[in-house]
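Sample 3 of the quickstart, ligand adenosine-5'-diphosphate:
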Amino acid sequence: MTMWEPQYEAMPGKELKCLQLERLQQKVRDVYERVPFYRTKFQEAGVTPEDVKSLDDIARLPFTNKNDFRDNYPYGLMAIPLSEVVRVHASSGTTGKPIVVPYSARDIDIWANLMARNLASAGVHKGDVIQNAYGYGLFTGGLGFHYGGERLGATVIPASVGNTKRQLMLIEDLGTTVLACTPSYVLVLAETARQMGINLASTQLRLATCGAEPWTEKMRAEIEAKAGITAIDNYGLTEIVGPGVSCECYLKRGMHIWEDHFLAEIVDPVTGESLPYGQQGELVLTTLTKEALPVIRFRTHDLVTLYPERCQCGRTMVRMSKVRGRTDDMLIIRGINVFPTQIESVLLSVEGVEPHYQIIVDRERHLDDIEIWVEVSEAVFSDEVQALKEVEERVRAEVNSVLGISARIKLVEPRTIARTEGKAKRVIDRREL
Ligand code: ADP
Ligand code: ZN
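Result:
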């Protein structure tokens, strides 16, 4: 299987480290000079760009968090003028202001190359027909895979999300060989195909490149069996670039992180201390080449392990395990990120609703399913059934319009949700991850 950029993907370790250090030093100087947020944070921490003499010195720099993006909305973290920005993406489904990510022309060019690397490492090549069922729009998945596929020289079908029956028709009629979508959606496609009497095994489809949400080896086995294809994992996040941070090679032994562009560290999620390779911890990423939105030491909150051993595929780049959990309480419901606190503020905006609730997440026929149990006031509860129905409908509509998720709402009597003395258990996640 050919590499897209072998000169980088298989770069000898020592050379790679030199390249990383050179790029890191440059980026640190850039943000210090151009982004007041970083300059202030560095000054508070008592560090200057000159203090970064080795890769290990990165540990002296302060972390960046999701909140820093919110606090500097929309363009506060940008390192180039807006007139040099050729595209802007934003994160999905959060309350209030999204996380905004601008790209320069060079950023877009590098991103397309990284996505071509992703696809090539998964085993996709010119001649393949990629049906891209990631969402097109502000979300990075759609356009990310789109330009990566074109860069690779493959044929791209910009199907976007949803409309499962049409997706199946396209697979059958257009000679689709590769699917790009979330892992849960591959299973939906496979099940719908079975119900419609379509035999996916008799189509050209052979591979799915999946990501944007956590999934297990068990789920991979199910996808591969049900759809008769190979399923490859890839990882990314809006703040860093979108997809294109790391991807499995066809050997499926962890996702190679494209280390010439992203510096990966593992830290103890509680103390923030660096942890060695091989130990599970929180992934922290620094962008080494991003122009419009360079990010220093971003706390991803994703729990992973890094494996530095050389891979049989010939790539030297470090591999990360599947994401094994999160250090915060962020839920990913059908690809939309939500925090329980956001659900809480929506619930409490509805009159008659009490601040006692529980969120139950499950995976029903491979799709995330969310049910919210919420207590209502005595007055509402003793009212007529019709009044209760109205409150229920209002809560459902609010959750849907503000957070973009459709949840089942169950109103319960006052004092029925268990109270705890310590931290309330707001979320019951029954999904097997
Ligand atoms: P996207 O959904 O485009 O990947 P977001 O910024 O909306 O980007 O969400 C990023 C988060 O999604 C990551 O921090 C991680 O928790 C999760 N995620 C992305 N890809 C994967 C993956 N392959 N496996 C597990 N979790 C993933
Ligand atoms: Zn490999």
